[in-house]
Specification:
With 286 residues, the chain is α/β, with parallel strands linked by helices. It has a domain of 181 residues: Rossmann fold. It is 44% helix and 17% strand. The protein has a seven-stranded parallel beta sheet, sandwiched between helices. Strand 1, helix 1 and strand 2 form a beta-alpha-beta unit. The longest helix has 17 residues. The relative contact order is 0.13.
Length: 286
């Protein structure tokens, strides 16, 4: 079996790649990356590294040759049309390369009334796959817990979380857990390729007051909750290039659209995901 992973040098893709190496061996893993020079560490591990470009069908077709299962991790752009184009190109390249199975890595903010910038894209892909004739499964991530760790110094300075979600709760998953679930889906045919849709979350969701309490326990510093408006949040983080997009995501959270909790992670892996308390305690450096 040959497993091809797109975005294999990204944050999530890197972890998925290492998990796949552990599960099936480096010889069965192919890393399809935009810049092979950034993947020399994978070559040294025995992984086949190939160049691919979501906007170049011929390059994608070549990179997908002899693939049994494609693990598709989307690009990071917030341009909905480009994301759709990239995925349509992927479907064409899969057909040309005779690839019939795909694990699509998605996000749970995909409801029809969800105002998140990328909601339309995440809603479109499962419907597109349903009519594609491919064997497929979709795994939706909840919010990553990982960005909370580097955010903690700012929160300590502020003294409170500012996410504009009101009293609504949010669900999270650690990237390590997400990657483990993705890799397990790829290698367990009984769990994939029949149109299954999974959403991986921790065992509970958190209001911001509850999250602040956990952060206070972990850091030893008081962190409460004083939400700003969606517009204020977007303005605060505009300089980072994604303030408006993040604002739209938390607007969805305030509508109660991002609080889903499932047991899908345990169904896939056989064990519970890491809790928020344990995750923050393990990664926060005082």
């Amino acid at each position: 079996m040959k497993y091809t992973i797109t975005g294999a040098t990204g944050h999530l893709g890197s972890i998925v790649t290492q998990d796949m190496i552990k599960l099936v061996g480096a010889n069965s893993v192919r890393a399809a990356v935009h810049t092979p020079a950034k993947a020399t560490h994978l070559t040294e591990q025995g992984v086949e590294v190939v160049k691919t470009d979501y906007l170049d069908i011929e390059t994608m077709t070549a990179s997908f040759k002899n693939t049994d299962v494609l693990i598709y991790i989307p690009s990071k752009t917030y341009d909905v049309l480009q994301r759709v184009t990239e995925f349509e190109n992927t479907l064409v390249a899969m057909k040309k390369a005779n690839v019939t199975e795909i694990v699509f890595v998605s996000f749970y903010a995909d409801q029809e009334k969800n105002p998140f910038t990328m909601s339309a894209y995440y809603g479109y892909v499962p419907r597109r796959l349903a009519g594609s004739g491919l064997k497929y499964t979709v795994i939706k991530n909840s919010l990553y817990a990982d960005p909370l760790v580097p955010y903690l110094p700012e929160l300590i300075e502020r003294g409170h979380l500012i996410y504009p979600v009101g009293q609504a709760a949010l669900s999270f998953i650690a990237q390590d857990d997400s990657a483990e679930a993705i890799a397990n889906l790829a290698v367990k045919p009984e769990l994939r390729h029949n149109g299954q849709v999974y959403t991986v979350t921790q065992q509970q969701n958190y209001t911001m007051a509850e999250l602040g309490k956990i952060m206070t326990e972990v850091t030893g510093k008081p962190i409460g909750y004083a939400p700003v408006s969606v517009a204020e949040f977007a303005a605060i983080y505009a300089a980072e290039g994604d303030g408006a997009e993040l604002g739209s995501m938390y607007q969805a959270g305030a509508m109660g659209l991002m609080d889903l909790v499932t047991t899908d992670f345990k169904k896939i892996t056989g064990h519970d995901p890491e809790s928020m308390n344990d995750f923050l305690a393990a990664h926060y450096q005082k």
